[in-house]
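Researcher: Hi, I'm a grad student and pretty new to this. My advisor asked me to get structures for two proteins we've been looking at. I'm not sure of the right format, so I'll just paste the first sequence and hope you can take it from there.
Model: That works fine. Here's the first sequence with its structure tokens right after it:
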Amino acid sequence: MHKEQEGRWIKFDFEQARVKHLLFKTRLRSILYGADLDAAPVISHYDCAVGQWIYGHALSAYANIPEMHKLEQVHTTLHTVARKLVDLYKTGKVAEARVGLDEMELISDELVELLSTVETLVHESGQVEFRKPAASDPLVISPEELEELQQLNRELDRRLKEQSRDIFEAKERFELIAKATHDAVWDWNLLTNKMWWNEGFKELFGYAQEEIYPTIDSWYIGLHPEDREWVIQSIHDVIDKGGSQWLAEYRFGRKDGSYARVLDRGYILHNQDGKPYRMLGSMQDITDRKKTEELLIQKDKNFRNIINTAPVAMLIFKGEDLIFDTVNQSMLALIDKTSEIIGKPLLNVLPELKGQPVIDIFRRVYKTGEPYFDYERLVPLMRDTLMEERYFKLAFTPVQENGGNVGIMVVATEVTEQVLARMKVEESNKEFKFVTDFMPQIIWSTKADGYHEFYNKRWYDYTGLTYEQSKDTGWNAVLHPDDQEKAWEVWRHSLKTGDPYEIEYRFKRFDGQYRWFLGRALPLKDDGGNIYKWYGTCTDIDDQKKNTDLLEERVVERTRDLESQKSLLDNILTNSSNGISVSEMIRDEEGRVYDARTILANESAVKYVGIPKDIYLNQRARDLDPDIFSSPYGRACLNTLASGEPTIIQHHLGAINKWLELTISRMDENHLIHIFTDVTVNKQSQLELERTIQELKRSNANLEDFAYAASHDLKEPIRKIRTFSERLKNNLGVRLLEKDQHYFQRMEKATERMQLLINDLLEFSHTSNGNTNFEEINLDKKVALVLEDLEVIVAEKNARVIVGPLPVITGHRRQIQQVFQNLITNALKFSRPDIRPEIHITSSVVKGEDIQGDDLHNVSPEKLYNLLKVSDNGIGFEQAYADKIFKMFQRLHGKAEYEGTGIGLAIVRKVIENHKGFIKAESEPGQGATFKIFLPIE
């Protein structure tokens, strides 16, 4: 070292560079530990004292020493790192800035080492300079700088002590938290690979302190062999890719050899260059939670398996939009859908439910969490493109997760047949009530459990109670208090054992008086011997009880009445005027019906078929009639058996020459019920009526032939009358008086009218022949031809005829021409004298269902019709006469006023009927008339 004191300046050497660098580093550390930034700014590597020495002198003076250039590069790097640390501190990243000091210390150490190396090389090369510092020499140490350095060190020491105290408190707090938690907290130094664990690691996994490695290996070893590779790979992927957070779920070994399921979270710290240097995290033992989750998953799987294999229709909706989540096969079959509906909203799958009450019920259950049950809910469903109304027994139960409703479970059982059967039973009950209301006894019935559901009118008349007061156990209200215990004891015994019920007790009448009744009831059982109903009677025996002498006789009489009433239905069957029988089908091995036998028949049935009862019940159907199943009656039986639809048919018994009308109903797949009566008299009348109708048809045909022939034969005499009257008139010439001239005129007009009438009769006869020589007709051309024929009269009337586009139809050419000729002539004839006649002919196509009219019974709703309208502005007529004008010889006006025979419109209607159409007339007096012709479009 060569030093020289001159005033306040110290001669430069390498030691000064080291001191200047120490001052720079101390200032930087002071900044990062709370010094005023403005008071100690970080200058550039060119402007600092060491930098000015390097660039102003050292680089040129020692250019031959390679380490000098390395020194310049390290010095530049040091300033770059210092600026980054200050920038981090300014942006609030204090911890990262202070961590960066460790890296800067390494660079500082390298800088100091290079200064010493260059200094040694300079001495060895003999390049040491001895000179006074000039005013421009920056690298001199002043006393003020030394004093500043001491002050910075003292201040920095104070701040470090304060911050050390804060760090100690934070560390102490962290250690307390680490001890308090049940998780295994870890701290991994990524630079040194050191690992720290809290006490939770020992507690969770059972290891002693000496068994825990201070490095990351303690974690690697504990990983399950099957998880080790992917877990290590995952954490290093996050670290290597600059991630800040890591999460994994894996198995970790315990001291006892078992494995815990852990959820591990880690957070990575990076320095100012983004390089990871530390990672902290915690391991949470979730073994019990995983077992619970797996148990819940298994329970859910089992639950869904139960749904899928359940014999009843079940499904689960998820969410407020009712998304199909789980649907079993029974439900898919019920709604006629496939598993493709899963994941779709209910209203997309079953749009027919839109607006139905069941949707509001679903949403109410989802919103409130209250279950819903219904035993007979009517629900419309689309099946095979047809809307069907079906009845269901429904149960809607909310599905809950984490205390909230997430869906609805639906259990549905179709009860359509049961409901319809019940409705039929109720209808039968109405008939039963109608019969029992006329009986003097009280008649009642109960369900199998004793619930009283029916009383006849006699009960209500006697007690004055209503049904609501009487149902179930309401009958107890009128029972005498002294009789109640015994009555209930006997009734419960009958309900339990099925024994007949019989007791004497007193009932209070509506006026408060008690009378004695004999109560009896018998159980009604199904084929399996199970009771499903009780029928009972209460007979007033008060008089017998009071009259001891007549008691036995009256009891016997009442008993006889009760037995008679009990067998009422059997008596109805026995005494019915209708024949009633039940037949049983006999099937082959493949289940096909090949024969039948009658197993039940009442006396009327035996009488109607005319076969002795023992033969009727013992012989098979083919023995009695080998061709029975090929007959209409046999085919009807097989059809009803297959379809279940009742059939009504009339059948002729040739052996006894009787006609029977039979109603065939299916009891089950092997039994048919036949209800029939003798309709021989009615059938004979019907056949006689059919023969009469045929005779009338032949008579009408003869009359039409006669009218045609008579009209044709009358034309010749009329022609001769006109010819000879004309000759006579010409021969007499001027000798005729004025009165004689008038007679001739009247005779000529009479013959003209007769000629016209005969022609119309011929036309009508021609249309009545029903000529079927049909062909295509262009109505535009046909109407044009008619107007040519009527050209003179149209001109005389100065009439205006407007014809719209008309269709091409199939029909009889001449008859169709008659229709338009008669209608146009009719419109010209009945025109108003003060108004120019206008006739409009139009056409359109209409559907049968759009045609209105009380008299149109044969209109097919689905059929299309050509509607032809002929409208005029003539004198019109009252609508009440709209049908009368189409009848033969019907006139609404006198002959003197309007000429005509009254046959023209009758011809029009007959032609239209020949073409399977119909015609209507609409009019008001003075408002003209419209004739509408409807011809079917084939």
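Researcher: Oh nice, that was easy. Here's the second one.
Model: And its structure:
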Amino acid sequence: MKRFFLQTRTSRLLETRNRHKEFAIKMLQLSIETENISVLLEKAVLFLKPALNIFCCGIFELTPDGHDFLTKFNAGQPAVLGKKLKLDADTDAYPGCALASNELFMVENFTTESRFTVPPVFTDCGFKSGMCMRLGEAAQPYGIMGVYSTDHSTFNAEDIEFFQSIIQILMSAVIRIQAVENLKKSRSDLSHIFRIARMGNWEWNLKTGDIYWSDTIFQYIGIPKQSPSIILAESLTYPDDLKRVQNTLKQLYDEREFVQIDYRVVRPDSQIIWISNEVKVIKDNNGRASKFFGIIQDITERKTTEQTLRESRQQYRSVVESTYEIIAIVQDNIIRHVNPSMERITGYTPEEVVGKRFAEFIYHKDLRKAYRAYKNIDPNLLFRRIYRGRLKHKNGSLLFCGISAGSIMYDGQPAHLMTARDITEQIQFEKKKEQLFLQTLQKAVEMEGMFNATRMLLEEKAFKPVARRLFETCRQLTGGQFGYIVLLSEDGTKSEVQFIETGGLACGVEPELPMPVHGMWETAFHFDKPLVENNFSTSRWARGLPARHVAIENIIIVRLEISGKITGLMGIANKSGGFTQNDAKIAQTIGDLVAIFLKDIRMQKALGRSEKRLRQAQKMESIGTLAGGIAHDFNNILSSMLGNVEISRHKIKSGSPIHENLLEIQRAAHRAKDLVNRILTFARQSESTSKPVQVSLIAKEVSKLIRASISKSIQIIEHIKTNAMVMADPVEIHQIFMNLCTNAAYAMKKSGGFLVVRLEDIIIDENFSVFHGMITPGAYIRIAITDTGDGIPPDAMDLIFEPYYTTKPLGEGTGLGLYVTHSIVKECRGTITVNSEKGKGSCFEIYFPIIKDIKEKTDEEEKKVPVQIGNERILFVDDELQLVKLGRRRLESLGYQISGRTNSIETLQAFKAMPAL
């Protein structure tokens, strides 16, 4: 019997092993054939369930954030698909404990397990035992695979061994598929890069024999796209170079990791081209070469140039040795070769020069210019003049030389061919010629300048175009490279950069940006003649330039004067060789012309502003007449509303909802009455009444009022962090909030968004005040109204505070909201700024100076005054019937006898007829 049981057990064991072996072979075949990870894992769980004869098999995929498991694939228990398990790999939670280890974790009984915390979903699904193991590498795991049974202690040693082998097969397959996908993506990216760089790449898989050529290679070689092969590559290689290429690749296969081969290729049209082939070998885990990867570039032009240079080297040497000019080859800033003319011109022998830096022989004040010119040598130009500068002679003297340079190849490496020609006598002659020319030109400029100024005055109506043309004339006559024109403010303490002329000057000073006057500018303002500085880098002003300003070598600054008053400056900078006094005279003449035209433009602008103010005054007068005509009728309506509300309030118990509603109506009516008075004040341009106001209370009130009138898709957010007081008219402050919040809500009416109301205290220093309307430094309250709407168009930013300007459609806006807001802010000694970006919203910021904390009386603080009662007869007269009825009810409630009339003539006749009544 014992033998029978032993045979039966052995038979079952063999049967299990055979079944496991059969499933492992199928799993291995599946992992080889499948190229998609999801498909592979989905089939794997379906294979593994019958192979282990278990209730459920599943894979828990790690979520992208790495915080949870997601049941991605499942066989046997569909209810758990898509469920999330909290990942806690640092504790004893199951199955997260398997994530940090490469070991198998098995639980024989989930209900009694004490080593791990088991999620409720396992017991809810009826699992009694199970085992799991990590899928993927520890550095980048995919997830965890687990198998579960409804019986306790189900898994034996054969099951465990089989499960581990399946995990290893899946891990290898996942890594392989990911590698293939990454390779495809890399190949696509690389092809795109090579296509832009006009280079070609190729691959040769030594194990499979597969060869890949990019499209660029076929274009270089001039053959149609086809399946590449070694035979095709060898047939295209120039016969004399084939053996050398084969030997180089053999060395790469045996011992080296990277080679670079230059060889010739014969195109189908018999044209021979040179290519540079950079090849890298990729080895497997055993250190054997598995793949070649190469990059090909057409270098025919470079090879042709090298060949030409080699062939002409002897001729070049003979020419170089006999010419009178200095000829030197400079490589990596070091002189590699120089001809005998170096000694004839500078006194240094070739032996004293070779091996030293070329900069050692340049005058130190010309080093920056020489270095910049050397760096800007165009490698595509064979030879060109780069600059004129001074070289040092061995005896200590200086000599002017014209230096030219070009790019060449020297000993197979890039280098520069430099020539230097002694032009000292030429410079002296040019200076004499320049003096004669400028003396003649000066008179011509003065006469022609006045003529051009008159002509420009007739042709142009704007300052900048004319000033730009005059400035360009000055730049050409003086030889300067760039410059600027600066206009002073009326008090002469601030300046405004009108334009900077260089065609792309890198400078931290932005056009039309107010800035303090100091440094070199301040000196020029007080200098009664043109300021000339030819060694700017060593001057006392060199450290006062704005950030990112272009390097200045020399400069001329002249004053712009109108009737003896300085109105600005004009500067010209960076003339090769430095400025002369004649340059200064030319610049001053042009500056005088700019000042004359500026005076005319300012007179025209002043006249235009006067006409505009006159038209504005006429508009305000018309508005005042219209407002005064309707104010009486509107105030009668408000008086009727206020009287009826007050009577109703006294008849209803205080604290009831209706009483509170009537109180709100009364407050709104008082606010409307104040607004009517404000309209009259604005239209007639009279002074408003200011008093201490707590801005935060008005901000909260406006937020509450406007919340009920805007779309539900707009959310109002309040960040009120101040209870500071400001000196203003509370009605005006209320009007500011209403105007800005209404505009913000209008900008978001289509798509909704956030309306943010922010109040906070800040301290403003002098720098801030200069760039924000010249307000006085000190303690301020900052009001910021921000929306996430469409933003303000850039072309409208300079016009939004102008009266009657609006971007809203006809009938939706008057164009007075922001104008009134701006006027109120200025009256309160504050300032307003706006930042807006198209499609991202706008932010209006208002700064009011804070006053001492004075308590403001609110509408709730009503004075308790005794009510007068009586029984006399009263004749009540008003032209509004509603007010007559209101007055009668109020006085009759106090015991009086009332006789009401609306017509003054009838009232007088009735009084004369019955005076006793």
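Researcher: Is there anything I should tell my advisor about the second?
Model: You could mention this: The mean pLDDT is 77.
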